[in-house]
Design a protein that fits this description.
The complex is a heterodimer of chains A (98) and B (146).
Chain A: E1 3-6, E2 20-23, H1 28-38, H2 42-46, E3 57-61, E4 64-65, E5 81-86, E6 89-90
Parallel strand pairs in A: 1-5
Antiparallel strand pairs in A: 1-2, 3-4, 3-5
Chain B: E1 10-14, H1 15-28, E2 34-40, E3 48-52, E4 62-63, H2 66-78, E5 81-90, H3 99-104, E6 111-116, E7 124-131, E8 134-143
Parallel strand pairs in B: 1-8, 5-6
Antiparallel strand pairs in B: 2-3, 2-5, 6-7, 7-8
Classes of the chains: A alpha+beta (98), B alpha/beta (146).
Chain lengths: 98, 146
Amino acid sequence: MAIEVRIPTILRSYTGGEKAVEGKGETINDLFADLDGRHNGLRGRLVGDDGALNRFVNVYLNDEDVRFLGGIETPVSDGDVVTILPAVAGGGLDAAPV
Amino acid sequence: MVDRRTLSAVLEIGRDVYDAIVAHARRDHPDEACGVVAGQAGSDRATRFIPMANAERSPTFYRFDSMEQFQVWKEMDARDEEPVVIYHSHTATEAYPSRTDISLASEPGAHYVLVSTREEDTVEFRSFRIVDGVVTEEDVAVSGLE
């Protein structure tokens, strides 16, 4: 058993075009570190220098946004499905709100 | 990776979908409106209009609600669809991608439609490809025009 991770189109360059890959770990953070071992650079697209989830990436554990769970430290277990979707955002002013 | 050369240089869109996007933008003015038009994967035909909530409820920013986006993306997957058009409005500036729009664009296969509602009587409806930070405007062909 493993954790299935669904990869959005824009990040499939890191997974050789695969729509879903498998990984393991105790938390989302562990899982992303594990994935980065095989898909070098992927973690850097998901996690900022401060170690938190990138603001404009949505990560879902099964059917929940992990921001409403424990963020990057949300526990995961075998059989879970993690979905990554880039946020769809923008706007008429050139500075994003803080 | 999306090969820019294979992307069509025109957005073909039905009059009903075009009108629905403009009506949504007018309705939510002065806040920005946003949404998706889904179509069969690979067809480049924008057929299923899906207005989305702007979670920011802001005149200068938009963001899809993360849970609504999750549901809509799952539904598109199940129907073998993709987001052919991603649209939003600018309410005080021109219908051209801002730096924020460009840096956050994350669907390289989509037509990014911008509608400006700054003028009450004039419709500004433009379409762009945004791939790797490069903006390319394309023609908009509305079918069903009388």
